[in-house]
């Protein structure tokens, strides 16, 4: 299934004096389980909220709490901490710590570590909403951002002090995405990707519809990984329970016609379009305005074809200058069906997957696709949909290189 996304990465986590410090214990545990080498630095105030022993047990390493004690016991120094890491995350970051960092103060182990760091620094604020919204705090955050620090916006909600507003520590899912973006090669920076995902629904009446088994997992994985690699991503999604990736613009639709209209309006300024959605090929000729009663229902359903979005995009590809990627969900003769779709719909790349296999079909957490472009076929390994997405994006990056379109047709 491949290596963890954090495997082998050296991550320093700085914890400051906030009630939200207990939440970070779970983050340290998750990163350690995924193979990261995690070092924890705690301020004196942080130690009053959570015992250093907790983070030591979760990370498997001694927690650094005092600069002078660390030096005396030959523990790793503040200079070594920040200069050997892949990234440094401060979470939770109090208003006091943010102010110190913004003005270059270095009066404790954490602030000296940050000041000496030569790796990316991410800051996740957590504080009372009035403190967070105070103009001085906002000015300090702006200073840090101008200096290249990444500040992860806190959530809006009820604080420990019972007030409501912005200031709650960001959720781990959002923080994780920021970490992964920092750790990812930004080979899609400057590219605009339009990605479709999920099924469409074609109404029979107000209670019933025609649809398919698509969960949207593959399309959402592509959107998530593309954003990590620096792309600006617009996700057009049919009904799906998948979580919207952080930093991704999303437009939700229901029907094939709605998806057609959104894609048509959005494709003109994209450099890459990935059609991972399972769009309905047919819809009812008529839709009942009221729920059809069982005793009045006809047993024959007349259908009409929906507009072919992929074919439309292929027809206008040269005019609009985008790279076009399609998907083919097949149950037999995979290569033949995929190659035919590539040629008839004028695609640059197609990902073919076997929906008859429980490990690669709809709703599964894994996938194994065959990529077909105008050079030939490449069979990808069975792996998670997220890793499959990265492998597909690797090929897209290659195709975006100059002269990539001047390749012989599939054989």
Descriptive notes:
The protein is of the alpha/beta class. It folds into two domains: 10-183, Rossmann fold (3-Layer(aba) Sandwich), CATH 3.40.50.1950; 192-399, Rossmann fold (3-Layer(aba) Sandwich), CATH 3.40.50. Helix content is 34%, strand content 22%. It contains 15 helices and 21 strands. It has helices spanning 21-33, 52-59, 67-72, 78-83, 95-102, 109-116, 129-133, 135-146, 172-183, 217-228, 256-266, 309-315, 317-320, 334-344, 385-399, and strands spanning 10-15, 37-42, 87-93, 121-125, 150-151, 155-158, 164-168, 192-197, 202-203, 209-210, 232-237, 249-252, 272-275, 282-284, 303-305, 323-330, 349-354, 366-367, 369-373, 376-379, 383-384. The strands form six sheets. Strands 12-11-8-13-16-17-19-20 form an eight-stranded mixed beta sheet, sandwiched between helices. Helix 1 (21-33) packs parallel to helix 2 and helix 9 (172-183) crosses helix 10. The longest helix has 15 residues, at 385-399. It is elongated and about 80 Å long. Mean pLDDT is 92; it is low at 403-411.
